[in-house]
């Protein structure tokens, strides 16, 4: 049977899975920085430039499994939150025809502070000071940041950057870091305590200031609303 040109071209399309993985990093008195790991390419195209961690989709692999696998192989990180972001498939984004299914993920700061694989080709970067990036990865990161900043206002996604127990000040700091501005502590407390997403515990964090109550996330409320989709 003779195939049409469209069918023949279809054989040349490759599918990749990449992940934009965000975390926070404290540094001095300013707001924490939103950071992400990048991988330096060791071959053409774009050899020597930095890129998002990722790899080719295996024919027997589910998409989310591929995202987790490629993250583990390139960065050894296990995210606390993982969601499909978008599909990028412009014809000119790569010398060969490549469609990238991009996920975005969150990693807690304590996890992000663990050493990356002993490889000079993997490193953390501040999203406000990115190096030259391969392909269309800068646009992908900018889109992921936009999604993060918008979603934090109506979902519980900020909890993906926190430990199991946290103070309201720590939660507010996550919102501030993502939004890039300070929030009024009293107004923030009223909003989150009335949201139904937090459960106060009987534990407190002590230090140089007055003890601060620890909260935990209400797991009866999903971290992200996926509706009837399987988890």
TrEMBL record:
Its EC number is 3.6.1.55. This is 8-oxo-dGTP diphosphatase. PANTHER family: ADP-RIBOSE PYROPHOSPHATASE (PTHR43736), SLR1690 PROTEIN (PTHR43736:SF4). InterPro entries: NUDIX_hydrolase-like_dom_sf, NUDIX_hydrolase_dom, WH-like_DNA-bd_sf, WH_DNA-bd_sf, WHD_NrtR. Gene3D superfamilies: Nucleoside Triphosphate Pyrophosphohydrolase (3.90.79.10), Winged helix-like DNA-binding domain superfamily/Winged helix DNA-binding domain (1.10.10.10). Residues 12-149 form the Nudix hydrolase domain. It comes from Microbacterium paludicola. The keyword Methyltransferase does not apply. One of its GO terms (molecular function) is 8-oxo-7,8-dihydrodeoxyguanosine triphosphate pyrophosphatase activity. Keywords: Hydrolase.
């Amino acid at each position: 049977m003779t195939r049409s040109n469209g069918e023949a071209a279809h054989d040349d399309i490759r599918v990749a899975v990449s992940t934009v993985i965000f975390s926070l990093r404290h540094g001095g008195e300013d707001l924490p920085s939103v950071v992400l790991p990048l991988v330096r390419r060791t071959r053409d195209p774009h050899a020597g430039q930095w890129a998002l961690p990722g790899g080719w989709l295996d024919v027997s692999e589910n998409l989310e499994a591929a995202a987790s696998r490629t993250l583990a192989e390139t960065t050894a990180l296990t995210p606390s939150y993982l969601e499909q972001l978008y599909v990028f498939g412009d014809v000119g984004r790569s010398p060969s025809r490549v469609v990238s299914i991009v996920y975005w993920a969150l990693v807690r700061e304590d996890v992000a502070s663990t050493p990356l694989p002993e490889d000079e080709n993997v490193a953390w970067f501040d999203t406000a000071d990115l190096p030259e990036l391969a392909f269309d990865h800068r646009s992908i990161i900018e889109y992921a940041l936009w999604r993060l900043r918008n979603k934090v206002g109506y979902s519980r996604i900020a909890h993906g950057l926190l430990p199991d127990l946290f103070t309201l000040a720590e939660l507010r700091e996550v919102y501030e870091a993502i939004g890039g501005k300070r929030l009024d502590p009293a107004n923030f407390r009223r909003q989150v305590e009335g949201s139904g997403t937090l459960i106060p515990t009987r534990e407190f964090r002590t230090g140089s200031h007055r003890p601060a109550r620890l909260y935990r996330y209400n797991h009866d409320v999903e971290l992200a609303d996926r509706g009837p989709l399987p988890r």
